[in-house]
Amino acid sequence: MRSRPKQARVLIAILCSMKLIGSLTSPYVRKVRVLFLEKKLEVDLQLDNVWSADSKISNSNPLGKVPCLILDDGEAIYDSRVIVEYGDSLSPVSKLIPTENRERAEVKTWEALADGIMDAGILARLERTWRPENEQSTAWVERQIGKIQKALEQMSEKLGDNAWCHGNQITLADIAVGCAIGYLLFRFPEIQWQTQHPNLDRLYQKLLQRSSFIETEPPAA
Ligand SMILES: N[C@@H](CCC(=O)N[C@@H](CS)C(=O)NCC(=O)O)C(=O)O
Predict the structure, then answer these.
(1) pTM to 2 decimal places
(2) Best substitution site from 49, 65, 85, 126 to test ligand 1's pocket, by max atoms within 8 Å of Cβ?
(3) What is the DSSP letter of 77?
């Protein structure tokens, strides 16, 4: 077998020892996992249920949140936006965040929009699942669902008839959008985004053909 150049061996050694703390249901974790799969970067997924009393996440991330990437020297990197930037910089394979400033800002704005859907969805879900029923606020849940609806409208408008969210190939923008709308299907099937925004569905169906999205589909709810 041909031996690999020294630089490549060092890189592989670094990459193989990375560990991603996360869950199979978190859309932020999915975003990171999809990006790593697209870039053909190896990372060990270490499952942690942040909602359980025996979660160890705060030993690595004082905020108690996943995803959290642990580097080979034990340094922890969070949150998902920082991890995807780091991941994209590790390998030239399939550049997912443009380097040019304006384009980069556009892709990161798509990501912020998608993350905003995840944030609002999680806040609404926690209100329904975490708080005792008599303390739950319908107005709070509706406020969050309103944000999701507005963000979906904006995504659909921005996507239009384009094949991808930004430029003419897959970027972090598509990955983040796919994870956000996939999360809605998983936790909020009552939100009818597929019929309201057929262009988002077209994008989602295309993403679902990719092994990165297939491998990271959340388990049945
Ligand atoms: N902005 C963070 C959000 C991460 C986040 O909220 N993760 C959820 C899981 S979906 C979590 O760990 N929540 C635990 C908590 O809030 O205590 C990111 O992008 O990584």
Answers:
(1) 0.93
(2) 65
(3) E
